[in-house]
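PROTEIN DESIGN WORKSHEET
SECTION A - STRUCTURE
LENGTH: 117
TOKENS:
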């Protein structure tokens, strides 16, 4: 696993959540064109609220940072996104990085971070 993925996994294990950007008016999450797949989409997610908040500029200025718990991801999100062949953007925009992982790889990271106690 690369360093960015390791950092993401460590942070979500500690807090049991991660963050996306949500438009309260349209009730939609930020979904963008994937950088590594011309026909696909990406859901950018951040390991901390602060990292996600730093992206609230430009076209994302009107969005809000919304937490997604590990439990909710595994119970609801994973199946919904699987039908859409989406990839996950990990801490996008941090150090100009646009790292993407498959939904399966991301979910494996989330499952390993889950605190089942």
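SECTION B - SEQUENCE
RESIDUE ASSIGNMENT:
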């Amino acid at each position: 696993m690369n360093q960015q993925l390791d950092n993401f996994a460590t942070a979500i294990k500690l807090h049991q959540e991660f963050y996306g950007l949500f438009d309260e008016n349209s009730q939609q999450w930020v979904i963008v064109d994937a950088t590594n797949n011309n026909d696909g989409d990406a859901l950018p997610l951040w390991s901390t609220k602060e990292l996600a908040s730093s992206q609230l500029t430009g076209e994302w200025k009107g969005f809000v940072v919304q937490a997604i718990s590990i439990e909710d991801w595994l119970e609801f999100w994973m199946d919904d996104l699987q039908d859409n062949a989406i990839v996950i953007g990990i801490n996008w925009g941090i150090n100009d990085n646009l790292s993407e992982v498959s939904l399966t790889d991301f979910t494996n990271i989330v499952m390993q971070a889950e605190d089942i106690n």
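SECTION C - NOTES
The longest helix spans residues 3-15.
The radius of gyration is 13 Å.
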